[in-house]
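Regression test case RT-17, inverse folding.

Input:
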């Protein structure tokens, strides 16, 4: 198995580049192990250098092995120039999605004889295939989320504000070993459940409502992401119906998720189930996304995505149906793509829970 640096350098010839520049913290972490918030890496076939500032002088040496480490109090790019890490005539690739335009202009000005070439998703495509160590961390993050879900169910009652539930999620995930929430938890009740990204508010949960909970944990940098929708008391027949539709779409997509399928083909499996029931126009987002050091990463599973799923991808499968003024349902699991099937990591139940 090639190291991450070797895998990156293996792309230099096809891309016709001599070096790759990394600034985005999750990509720096993936390539080097460095978890600081400020740094630049210059990777060449002859070696890799990481430049950061004085706040990280101790941490970077603990976290990064086999790289040239440079600390500066001034501009990171200035340090690259002072150390002559980039030579005239070099062609340097960078991630056009994360390097700022102002940084690009500064680089061009500081290194007039170097060519900087935007390349899309180079590090992310490597990071999309998880190794055993990464999968173990994601499993742990998912376990924390499942355990937390079971614990908060008894706390969901009419009169309890959504924000109370969000606070309990954060507290319990941390008590179970999470270093952070994966993102600001979505706790959306009643009509608000029709907002796919309804952050928790002071609204009190009421009887007869759907309640969507979408949250995740971070464990050693790796994210989990789960959604469940529950019923609080007796809900309308149409709410029950959309629950059944979303559940069957989610299960059909899980059945189809395996190596060799493209993102848009998998998206179409779930969307097709929802279309047959007449709810297609109420499913307005993509089916899923990769998870890892970022909460949203490659591969994407959307109507547009040509990404070919391969073993070791870890993705979410999360169809939803959202009907204004009635409410919404989303069910989301994290799965590992295998050769002939996928492994669902979440253990939380998927039948409609009536609280
Ligand atoms: Mn998600």
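Golden output:
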């Amino acid at each position: 198995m090639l190291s991450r640096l070797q895998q990156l350098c293996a792309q230099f010839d096809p891309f016709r580049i001599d070096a790759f520049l990394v600034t985005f913290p999750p990509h720096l972490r993936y390539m080097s192990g460095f978890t600081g918030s400020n740094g630049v890496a210059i990777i060449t076939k002859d070696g890799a250098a990481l430049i950061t500032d004085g706040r990280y002088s101790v941490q970077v040496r603990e976290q990064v092995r086999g790289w040239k480490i440079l600390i500066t109090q001034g501009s990171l790019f200035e340090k690259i120039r002072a150390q002559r890490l980039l030579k005239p005539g070099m062609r340097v690739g960078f991630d056009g999605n994360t390097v700022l335009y102002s940084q690009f202009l500064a680089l061009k000005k500081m290194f007039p004889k170097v060519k900087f070439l935007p390349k899309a998703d180079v590090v992310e495509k490597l990071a999309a295939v998880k190794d055993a160590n990464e999968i173990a961390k994601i499993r742990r993050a998912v376990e924390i989320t499942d355990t937390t879900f079971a614990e908060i169910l008894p706390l969901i009652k009419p009169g309890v504000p959504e924000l109370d539930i969000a606070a309990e999620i954060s507290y319990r995930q941390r008590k179970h070993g999470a270093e952070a929430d994966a993102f600001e938890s979505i706790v959306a009740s009643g009509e608000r459940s029709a907002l796919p990204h309804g952050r928790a508010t002071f609204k009190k949960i009421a009887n007869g409502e759907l309640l969507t909970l979408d949250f995740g944990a971070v464990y050693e940098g790796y994210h989990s992401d789960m959604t469940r929708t529950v019923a609080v008391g007796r809900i309308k027949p149409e709410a029950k119906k959309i629950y059944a539709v979303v559940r069957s779409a989610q299960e059909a997509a899980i059945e189809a998720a395996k190596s060799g399928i493209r993102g848009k083909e998998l998206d179409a499996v779930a969307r097709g189930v929802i279309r047959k029931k007449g709810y297609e126009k109420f499913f307005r987002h993509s089916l899923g996304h990769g998870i890892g050091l970022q909460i949203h990463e490659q591969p994407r599973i959307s109507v547009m995505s040509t990404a070919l799923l391969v073993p070791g991808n870890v993705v979410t499968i999360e169809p939803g149906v959202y009907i204004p003024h009635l409410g919404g349902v989303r069910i989301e699991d994290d799965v590992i793509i295998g050769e002939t099937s996928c492994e669902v990591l979440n253990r939380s139940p998927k039948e409609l829970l009536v609280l």
